[in-house]
Amino acid sequence: MPSALPLGLPAPADGVLPEHTANGANARNFGLYVHIPFCAVRCGYCDFNTYTATELGGGASQDEYAGTARQELTFAAGALSASGVPRRPMSTVFFGGGTPTLLPARDLAGILASAVELWGLVPGAEVTTEANPDSVTEESLQVLAAAGFTRVSFGMQSAVPHVLQVLDRTHSPERVPQAVEWARRAGLKVSIDLIYGTPGESMTDWRTSLETALSYGPDHVSAYALIIEEGTKLAGRIRRGEVPAIDDDDHADKYAVADEKLGAGGLHWYEVSNWALSVDDQCRHNLAYWKGDDWWGIGPGAHSHVGGVRWWNAKHPRAYAAALDAGSSPAAGREVLSARDRYVEDVMLRVRLREGLPTATLEPEGRRAVAGLIADRLVEPVDAFRGLVRLTDGGRLLADAVVRRLLPD
Ligand SMILES: C[S@@+](CC[C@H](N)C(=O)[O-])C[C@H]1O[C@@H](n2cnc3c(N)ncnc32)[C@H](O)[C@@H]1O
Ligand code: SF4
To answer: What local confidence, expressed as pLDDT, does residue 206 receive?
Structure first.
């Protein structure tokens, strides 16, 4: 089951934002996220807001989805202009899911074309789609590249069949190099998602996955520790003792191996879970989230953020489509971030970046914590001297603990 949305203030039906959201907008990048809430099969570990054909029921369908997403694009452009937020071309576009590539490539291309018609794209904009290796063909990737997509992010997760089986992945390992090769031929940059710490995964299995992913020559890798989400099939299997529980020490050891291998393969960390060949290969869309830029999130359950106001859409595709059909905002709730909320988020997200968090932006108690973090070898002393809180290799393993010390209650 997908997880629940946060509670918040009611969102107005016309989607108009408070006046202050326009302040300084020209200095912030504008991005677009498009959520595609469909998967062929639900992986046992995943609680993303996504639906298989059987889970979806009537009243919402994959065939109609591109049209519904376009309705929200038009609504978004109207609401932003009525709010006085200046229209800026999009710096980044990201189609995520679910499995975006479960929709025909012409539908994804059509949604992108409608967005470009409304806002335009900055020169050299980054346009990414997530994809399952078994939901693309050489032709579909060619269509996406011709439509303006620049990057594809494949959910590889592991190269080891018994690990893929515990994760309920549908693709066979051989499918990944084929999909990567097609993407390259189409001129797309390639990112690979990996998961470590799956029950039953040995260190040798994890090394194999890393080496195999590197052998495909990706420009970017995201490596995530498996999170056991409550209510998922995998959580139930662990509770019943059918598969072993996960272990934090195992996660830490595997993170260290990932960093060592990816580094040796020429990929450098730029965020705790993300490595790229060069600065140009970093995911600019995610960086925009982490740095508090503006973005509109299209689709059921999608989150948006403009100038310190955040909102999120109705979660079920049927409720989402019904709101748009009625000419209303599909938002289910929103919140106006206080200065304190923004400060806390900024510390939490920026400390995870290699570029570091400027010490000068910290409140006094956060600045006082830095000396102790240096003494505990969690923060780089030379960078701290230059006015930046930057995690050491050991600090990356304990990023959450560092955040707690920078933000004492
Ligand atoms: C929307 S999915 C990517 C696209 C595509 N649906 C796929 O899975 O191949 C985004 C990524 O989130 C990660 N992910 C999802 N659930 C996770 C969990 N419980 N723990 C860790 N990573 C997770 C996976 O690595 C996945 O590739
Ligand atoms: S394919 Fe991706 S989004 Fe769909 S259930 Fe699996 S991990 Fe989640």
So the answer is: 98
Whether the model clears a pTM of 0.85, i.e. scores above it, the answer is yes
Query: Are 270 and 386 in a shared domain?
Result: no
Atom of ligand 1 nearest to the CA of 133: 9
Q: Which domain holds residue 76?
A: 19-290
The 10 Å CB-count burial string (b at 16+, else e) for 108-125 is bbbbbebbbebbebeeeb
* pLDDT above 90 (res 7): no
- Supply the pLDDT for residue 360: 95
Return the sign of the alpha-carbon dihedral for residues 114, 326, 78, 84: negative
Q: What is the mean pLDDT of the chain?
A: 95
Exposed/middle/buried for residue 227 (C-beta within 10 Å: 0-12, 13-18, 19+): middle
Q: What is the CATH number of the domain that holds 388?
A: 1.10.10
Query: Among all ligands shown, which has an atom nearest to the Cα of 39?
Result: 2
- Could you tell me if 267 and 358 lie in one domain? no
11 occurs within a structural domain: no
| Whole-number percent of the chain with pLDDT over 70 | 98
**Contact in structure between 388 and 357 (CB atoms under 8 Å):** yes
Tens-digit pLDDT profile for residues 137-150: 999 999 999 999 99
The string of pLDDT tens digits covering residues 233-279 is: 999 999 999 999 988 899 999 999 999 999 999 999 999 999 999 99
What spacing in Å lies between the alpha carbon of 175 and ligand 2's midpoint? 17
Flag whether 270 is in a domain: yes
The 10 Å Cβ neighbour count of residue 67 is: 14
Closest to 9 measured CA to CA, from 384, 371, 336? 336
Tell me how many domains the chain contains.
2
Mean pLDDT, range 175-203, rounded to an integer: 97
Question: Which atom of ligand 2 lies nearest, measured to the CA of 132?
Answer: 1
Say if ligand 1 is within 6 A of residue 48 CB. yes
- Residue 361: strand, helix, or coil: helix
Residue 326 lies in a domain: no
403 CB burial (10 A radius; 0-12, 13-18, 19+): middle
Please give the distance, rounded to the nearest whole angstrom, from the Cα atom of residue 39 to the centre of ligand 2.
6
Statement: residue 214 has pLDDT above 80: yes
Q: What is the pLDDT of residue 56?
A: 83
- Tell which atom from ligand 1 comes closest to the C-alpha of 45: 19
